[in-house]
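Running this now, will post back.
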Amino acid sequence: MAEMERENEAAEIEIMEEGLVKKLRQIENEYTQRKNAIAKQRTDWQNENQKAGSGSELSDEQEKLLRDAEEMNTELRKRQEQLLYKELTDEYQSYTDKRLEIEKKHNEDIAGLEKARGQAVKDGDSAAVARIDRSIAEAVKSKGRALMGHDLEVLRQSPEYV
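Update: finished.
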């Protein structure tokens, strides 16, 4: 019965869409499988000890091995989860960093143009003001295109992209 439950759980995870929830379920499923194997080993050793006539108590060495296995299993699950969250954080941090870089570059360009426009207004050069206004409008459009292009590229790289 337990074996069928494990198989059903594995099949359910297999058909899930890729993503955080699926990976967390895989980690938890692997943890549970290792935990069950440790429990089975405990029972097997208790049965072997019983048959050998030393009672169902485990030896100190057997207890230590099982405790170490349980600790390693718990530590492995913890490390796998930490790695998963780190990868996820890095993925989205990279996305955010790239967007901020695009925004910073364009905002600096726009600020420079606005400063030049202010000087042109002060100088009374209406032709320069009009030219700079067109440049500012183009810089704003360019910023929008760059951000949308970045977002589209990220979307294309995503497994959910259709």
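Helices lie at 2-15, 20-51, 60-123, 126-157. More later if anyone needs it.
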